[in-house]
Amino acid sequence: MGRKRVVDEFGPEAWCEACDDLIDFEEPGRAKGHCAECGPAYRQARRHGITIQKVNAILRVQDDSCAICGEYPGDGGMEGISYWQIDHDQACCNRSGFCGGCVRGLLCKTCNIRGVAWYERLPDDRRDWPRMNAYLADPPAQRPEAKVSTWGDLSGVRARAGSFCSWRSSRPL
Question: Is 0.90 surpassed by the pTM of this model?
Fold first, then answer.
């Protein structure tokens, strides 16, 4: 990982810092130092005030599945590659930035948009969904075991549709 940039007769080449795939500089969606598949996960983590290592730790705690419905992300579809949605407490941060401390977990798109957002607008006496209540009462990202604590949390992009799940090391740091 972290190979040097190479220039040959076909132009410049570089390797993704996360997955070690060759970066296509013409491909949209990539972030500095990352390929188009890892770039969106890095941008989303940065936008929410957390690191990709913290995202990896949260997904480890969630067993690489949605914290509410337990489903795994799809590899793709009409909208492209399916990435996890970072859920945070809307009451904490304003639109100008995120503190990172209010992140609750990683959800599938359906649970984030049609689940939590809708459920939190209900009056307290109508909130009778046990899985959602459990998630809101004990968010995975705020548990002590969600800290970056294993070698597997330090490398790769676990949020990349679960592509790194099978080899992720759980050996403590």
Answer: no
